[in-house]
Amino acid sequence: MTPRPSNNPSARRRSGVRPGLILGTAFALVAAWLLLVTTPGSRDRERAFTAAADCPAPVRGDADCLRTVTAVIDRTERVTRSKSPSYWLYITEADGTSTRTRIDGSPRQYPVARPGEGVEVTYWQGQIRYVDFASERRPTNADPRGAYRIPLTLGLGLGIYGSAFLAGAAAMAWTMRRSVRAYSWQVGLTITGGTFLAAFGALAPWLTDGIGEALQLTGLAAVVVLAVCALAVPFLRRRNRGDDTIALKPSVLTGEVCFPGVIMGEVPYAGSAGYLAAAPGVLATTPDPTGVFHRKAAPRTLTPLRVRPPYLTDPPGRPDYDGRAVVLECEDNGVPVLVVTRRKDAPAVLGALGPVPAE
After folding, report:
1. Is the dihedral of CA 250, 251, 254, 260 positive or negative?
2. Among 8, 70, 169, 217, whose Cα sits 20 to 30 Å from the Cα of 267?
C-alpha cells in the first residue's frame, strides 16, 4: 500500500534540513584543519627550505642545510598509478648509495634522463628536493615550494562549499515555515552562489603567490558573487510570487514512450514501479525500462488537475530525480492521485491523460 502523506510537517522539515547541516559541518571541520594547521605548516616548510643554506661540510641524516652530491642515473620507471605523468629516477651516488626520487613528466622529455648520465641531487631534511641535470634543474615531488597550494585549495573549496550547505540549511528552515515547497528559490540561490564561489576559491591559490593573496582574491570574488545574488533576488521573488502551478503543454504522442516516474495514491495502479509508459490515451506503471513487463494501466477516469513543484507534504518516498521532479495532481473518481516524473517527461503524461482543464 502506498504510504499516506505525512501528518507531521515538522518532522519532514527537520529531515530536509538535517543533511545540509551534517554535510556543512563536516566540510567546515575538514576545511578548518586544512586552513589552520596543514596550510600554514606547508608554508613554513617552504620558507625554511627557501632560506636554507648549503651545508658547510659533508653531513648525513636529516640536516636542515642543503646537501648536494653527485650521482649517476641507473634507470627510470614510469609511475602508473598517477593521474599526471611522472617517473621514478633511480640513481647511485658517488659513495655507492642507491636511491630513487620521483619527478613529474616523462624521462624522455627535456632534459632527457639517460642511464649512465651524471647528475647532482640536493637533499634537505633527508629527502631529495631537486635534481640538476647537465642542462636544467628539475624539482622532485618532495620539493616543498608551492606545496601549500593543495591544502589551501581543498580548504577554501570545502570551507566555502560547507558554508553554502549551512546557509542553504538555514534558508530551508526559514522558508519551510512559510511555504510547503520542497525546494525554494532561496535555497537554490544560496547553493548556486556558494558553488561558484567555492570553485573560484579552489582556483585562487594557483593564481596567486601566497596565502594572503589567495584569501584576498577569494574575498573579492565573494563580494562579486554576493552582488550578483542580490541582483537576482528581486527577479526570483517576482517569478515565484503567487500560484506555483507550472504551465506545460501536452506532447503529441504518436507511439509509446517510457521514462522514469511513479503514481502515488490510494488506487490499485499506484506504487513505486520506477517507470511510466505513455501512449495516446494510455498511462501505465512498470518496473521495466522498456515498458513491456508487469504493467499496471491507469483507468480513463484518471483526470489531471495541475502540474506543480514537489511539496513537503507529498507522500514519503516521492522521487526527486536530482531536483528535476514535478508533480501532476490528478483525481480518480474523487480519490487524489499524484503522478511524479521529471519535468521534461511531464508533457508526455499530459499527452496520455489529456491536458489540464483551464480554470
Report:
1. negative
2. 8
Angle at 62 between CA 58 and CA 63, to 5 degrees: 50
Q: Distance (Å, rounded) from C-alpha 314 to C-alpha 324?
A: 15
Give CA 270 to chain center in angstroms: 34
Report how far residue 28's alpha carbon sits from residue 46's, in angstroms, rounded to the nearest whole number.
26
Nearest-CA neighbor of 167 among 198, 138, 128, 140?
A: 198
Helix (H, G, I), strand (E, B) or coil at 219: helix
Q: List C-alpha distances in Å: 169 to 161, 210, 303, 319.
A: 12, 33, 36, 20
Cell numbers that stand for 34 in this block: 586544512
How far, in Å, CA of 138 to CA of 127, rounded?
14
Phi-psi domain of 126 (left: phi exceeds 0; alpha: psi -120 through 50; beta: other): left
Cβ contacts of residue 73 below 8 Å, gap of 6+? 89, 90, 91, 113, 114, 115, 116, 117, 118, 119
Asked whether 228 and 327 are in contact (CB, 8 A), the reply is no
> What pLDDT digit, counting tens, does each position of 167-203 carry?
888 887 777 777 777 777 788 899 899 999 999 999 9
SS3 of residue 248 by DSSP: coil
Q: Share the mean pLDDT of the chain.
A: 88
Alpha carbon distances (Å) from 230 to 107, 135, 188, 241: 52, 55, 13, 17
Closest listed residue to residue 267, CA positions, set 309, 294, 292, 296: 296
Indicate the pTM of the whole model: 0.74
CA-wise closest residue to 291 among 274, 305, 306, 303: 274
pLDDT tens digits along 72-131: 999 999 998 877 899 999 999 998 999 999 999 998 888 899 999 999 999 999 899 999
Q: Comparing C-alpha atoms, which of 323, 292, 289 is closest to residue 309?
A: 323
- Cβ neighbours, 10 Å, residue 332: 19
pLDDT tens, residue by residue, 245-297: 888 999 999 899 999 999 999 999 987 778 999 999 899 999 988 888 888 99
